Amino acid sequence: MKTAPAIPLLDLLAALSDPTRLRLLRVLDANELSVGELGKALQLPQSTVSRHLKVLLDAGWVARRSEGTAGLFSMGELVSDARELWKTIRVNAVEQSEAREDDARVRAVMAERKTDSLSFFGRYSDQWDAMRAELFGPRFTGVAMLALLNRQWRVADFGAGTGIATHAIAPFVHRVDAVEQSEAMLAVARERMGAAGLNNVMFHQAPVEATPIDAAVMDAAVAVLVLHHVDEPADAMREMTRVLARGGIALIVDMVAHNREDYKRTMGHKHLGFSRDEMNLLMERAGLRDVRYVELPVEPMAKGPGLFVCVGVKK
Question: Which of 24, 47, 231, 243, CA to CA, is 20 to 30 A from 89?
Fold first, then answer.
């Protein structure tokens, strides 16, 4: 069987030149632990544990074993030189008082494994986000939160486009009125709702500044990535407010103010996003109160400007 090449003695010693790495190796000599468990046992940030583990891994002192999407670490199969070196170093590698404290915490961490889900999260807290996304996908949390909507609500989707927002909202409310000026976009939206079996959507071909919806009948009105396409955003905001019942909510999702002038030429944008002050003014002048403007988390793969959500309540 082919064996790994021996690591020079100086490299082995260099990997043990840090007191934290000596503590890690001492614990891993007798236990197999995750990054999260090591952080608990040694009372260190997980980022610090990971950084030192990499050094020990590269030097061959430590081995990693995968368990699902998580990793468990233990002392590796040492070659004879390393094994003899560790025997010499281990006795005085860590002060006795610190070693006793580390050992006590390791025992406590290992005891957690005997409990059910709490032990699981204790072991894999540092990797849970990745595991969760791998098992269930990254989108379900936001979609599930839509169940907080009142099932009796009637919602207007201004500038519905191909029906992405309508499709998300419709399963959770009584009815959605999708307003879109483009006939081609509406055709795609109708097909999307039909494929999803959503029969509680009413379609209106109309501009967002002048819809056929009656006044004061909507519980909520949304406009997702629409306002920057409108010549006069104030007109659209007034129309959204007009269709809302008293206490109804207007919600805007759009781009934060930016300087990408080429968007006007390539995509027909009328406005280069909106600042907090601009949105506050637009909503308040339209007759909305309790305005809130929150910038949304940036998606790592997104190439466009950042987005915000802004909500206001009809007086």
Answer: 47
